[in-house]
Write a structure and sequence with these properties.
This is Solute-binding protein family 3/N-terminal domain-containing protein. This protein is an alpha+beta fold and 263 residues long. It folds into two domains: 157 residues, 3-Layer(aba) Sandwich (D-Maltodextrin-Binding Protein, domain 2); 94 residues, D-Maltodextrin-Binding Protein, domain 2, CATH 3.40.190. Helix content is 24%, strand content 23%. It has seven helices and 14 strands. Strands 1, 6, 7, 8 and 14 form a five-stranded antiparallel beta sheet that branches. Strand 3 and strand 4 form a beta hairpin. The longest helix is centred in the C-terminal third of the chain and has 14 residues. The termini are close together.
């Protein structure tokens, strides 16, 4: 199955969002020395974060991007793998300093600093079996009666927030992509929602299942995803200020790390 970058809605995020992106005061603090570690909570999802060949380390576009941008900021990265829902809890508590690939929501802004610029923009999709009668989506009512697999605690596009049309079947854990693929192919759900168009395509291809699924874009604008910093981390304010400075110079583009993995 081809999931070439030409089909993806990936842009270098040089777009300034309307209004200030960081709510509340941010007191600038001098960042610590280059040997200081920033704890980054991550959840497994290709091609951004995945286990390396040994199973002990991590690789992926997000790992490379965060390592590069934190180095530019004067810090070293320490990655901690957690289920998605735990990443959110850890950000709120200050157990981790940062994370990435998160949508901005009013709730998350209460415990995380969102920088001035998003890191990337991608469009949400539904993953269906290759034999599904669902060909394209123009209205949420095209999904009438479907049972849709999704990851617990993840954001839902506004387009889908219409009660009574379909139902969600939520999963937890670090292997949620594999869980959902197996449920879809076993006909235990009708479709899978994902916020990017390539995680399931890559996972299916690697398991020789690429010809058994199709990716259908949702008819919505691409979504902004951010690197975020915990408001309860002692240096969260310093980190978001340093990140904003690095992004203003545009030395490190997330898409520079993503595109080679999608060819």
């Amino acid at each position: 199955m081809k999931y070439g970058v030409r089909t993806l809605i990936l842009v270098v995020s040089g777009l300034v969002l309307s209004g200030p992106a960081v709510s509340g005061p941010v007191d600038a603090v001098e960042p610590a020395g280059a040997t200081d570690e920033v704890t980054v909570g991550v959840f497994l999802h290709s091609p951004y974060v995945e286990r390396d060949g040994s199973g002990a380390g991590l690789r992926g576009a997000g790992i490379e991007y965060m390592t590069a941008v934190l180095t530019e900021m004067g810090y070293a990265a320490r990655f901690v793998v957690q289920p998605f829902s735990r990443v959110i809890v850890s950000l709120a508590s200050g157990e981790i300093d940062a994370s990435f690939n998160l949508m901005k929501t009013p709730e998350r802004e209460t415990f995380a600093y969102f920088p001035e610029l998003p890191a990337l923009r991608v469009g949400p999709v539904l993953v269906v079996r290759s034999g599904s009668t669902l060909a394209d989506i123009s209205s949420v009512h095209d999904l009438q009666g479907l049972n849709i697999c999704y990851v617990q605690d993840s954001s839902v596009p506004e387009f889908l927030l219409v009660p009574g049309v379909f139902s969600f079947d939520f999963v937890r854990g670090q292997d949620w992509i594999t869980q959902n693929l197996l449920k879809l192919l076993a006909k235990r759900c009708d479709a899978i929602l994902d916020l990017n168009p390539h995680s399931y395509a890559i996972a299916a291809d690697r398991q020789n299942l690429g010809d058994r699924i199709r990716i259908i874009p949702l008819p919505v604008e691409p979504t902004d995803f951010y690197v975020v910093f915990s408001r309860n981390s002692p240096r969260g304010a310093a980190l978001v200020a340093a990140y904003n400075d690095v992004r203003a110079q545009e030395k490190q583009s997330y898409t520079d790390f993503i595109e080679p993995l999608l060819r």
